[in-house]
Specification:
Radius of gyration: 14 Å
Number of domains: 1
Mean pLDDT: 89
Shape: globular
Distance between the termini: 30 Å
CATH topology: Gyrase A, domain 2
Structural class: alpha+beta
Number of helices: 3
């Protein structure tokens, strides 16, 4: 699997494919150390922290724009100083390479302080 996941694009998933097994998901996560497996390997999550509500909102808007462009949409919860993102491919009830591609693109938005 390429280490430059954020340079790839999500492919439409129409279902009918098997979700990644836990070992494959963990291999992808080696490139995304801030993300963690959840829901028995069916989902990946990451929490982001910000100094203000406005920063969290701006980040969520950027994530939304990327998700729309890729045609792959995360679950997002956010509020004052935080955003929590969960990714899974609902059509296959598990993880697909697309989830890791989008996670890498989201990670690219994070600017060091």
């Amino acid at each position: 699997m390429p280490s430059s996941l954020n340079q790839q694009h999500c492919t439409p998933c129409r279902g009918g494919v098997e979700p990644l097994d836990k070992a494959a998901a963990e291999a992808y996560l080696a490139n995304l150390p801030s993300w963690r497996l959840a829901e028995h390997g069916k989902c990946i999550n990451r929490d982001f922290r910000f100094k203000t509500f406005a920063q969290a909102l701006a980040f969520v808007k950027e994530v939304g724009a990327i998700a729309e462009g890729e045609g792959h949409h995360p679950d997002i919860a956010f509020g004052w100083g935080y955003a929590s993102i969960s990714l899974q491919t609902h059509k296959i009830n598990g993880l697909h390479e697309n989830d890791f591609i989008l996670a890498a693109k989201i990670d690219a938005l994070v600017r060091p302080e």
